[in-house]
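Extended Data, panel c. Modelled sequence:
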Amino acid sequence: MTRGAVDQMEASVLKLLAEDAEGLAIVAAAVQDALVKPQDIKLDKRSRAFGLEINRFQWEKAGARPPFFRSRAVLAFSSVLGAKQQKMPKGVDDVLGLLDIRFVPGAEAPAGAVTLVFANGAQVQLGVECIDVTLMDTGTAWPTKRRPDHEKRK
């Protein structure tokens, strides 16, 4: 591994907070192509929190050629009123690719629905009082040779 790759692995940890639709779009871009296992997706009804432990592709460091980097991260939603899943696999070895996070305002602002869209049609829709999302890398980045390619999926 080159010294440059080691320097990038040790670089700063990403921390983002979103409190409106514009901020949520930035978080969505940062987690595009994150990988998550269904058992790493949790809803805590008591604290009205929803979270995912993900392997985040670091788009902000991605160049044209390897090495690329991934890091472990937590994506957390607060002020969650409820969650509905659609087409979510349940297998221990299943891995979901997170493609997008969308927000649709409700009848009474700032409430609405946040939808996490995964590859293969899986979705989680969250009813929220407001947008309150935190994304934080939790560990050192590791190199990967693979860069997600959306053109190949078409």
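Residues 3-146 form one domain. This feature is highlighted in the accompanying rendering.
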